[in-house]
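Render this sequence as a predicted structure.
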Amino acid sequence: MTKRGGKKPTKKTAATKPVRATDAAAEFRLNLTFGESRRPVTVLAPMTPLDLTELLPILQQFDNEVVSLAEEETARVGKPISCCAGCGACCRQLVPVAPSEARRLSALVASMDDERRATIQRRFADAVDAYERAGLLDRLATAHQLPDEQARGELGVEYFRVDVACPFLENESCGIYPDRPLACREFLVTSPAENCRDPGPDNIERVKMPAQLSETLYRFGPTGERQPAEWIPLVMSLRRAEQKADSQLPRQPGGEFVQKFLSQLSGGRRP
């Protein structure tokens, strides 16, 4: 569902060892390069024990910097971002989330006041029912196992045709914008906004990213080990979290988690 072409921008990240580590925190300094745009980024991680869901805010802040660099380079080459508030077409596409993101989204819903929580839970239930009626639910549950990008793209088109909005969409804008998944942060287009109402392989031009944190997260295991990619559609997040409610995630110092993540993000090089 994406159009790709042109010269591929270069990308570079710094070494994965922390520049400075104390009993309280580890500091990682990275130099991101994308095309002709450059940006120094500092990632701070507490050395207190975290589980993978508690690591997500650190990764979200890092991803914000990565996406911002992509926007800067895109503007430099004269291709402004089309996405804007009130344009929620992409919020009807299949949004992949890592299991840790599903847990965090479930906890976010649980923290809402009673009325809003009931509204969001009903939207999730209605969305799951809609995809079940469309005969897609079983395929969506194992979508990450599809063999190639073409098969995933075909499922994505079928998903979009059902025309169900993300349960968090409010007035065509994200109702959980600061907490949105990594995949949402990384999905930007330069093609005309109206094209997103009927996306196809030739009318959507996505913005390339200096690094794909979401793809690394799908392969990032509960203790930071690399594993086969695993993700689920966002609309199945509450169901997945409920199924795993009794399982406890292991914990380790946040700085160690970040070091492992950066190592995988940079291609598995040893820190």
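Summary. The chain has a mean pLDDT of 87. Strands lie at 11-12, 20-21, 25-34, 37-46, 49-50, 96-97, 169-170, 173-174, 232-233, 252-253.
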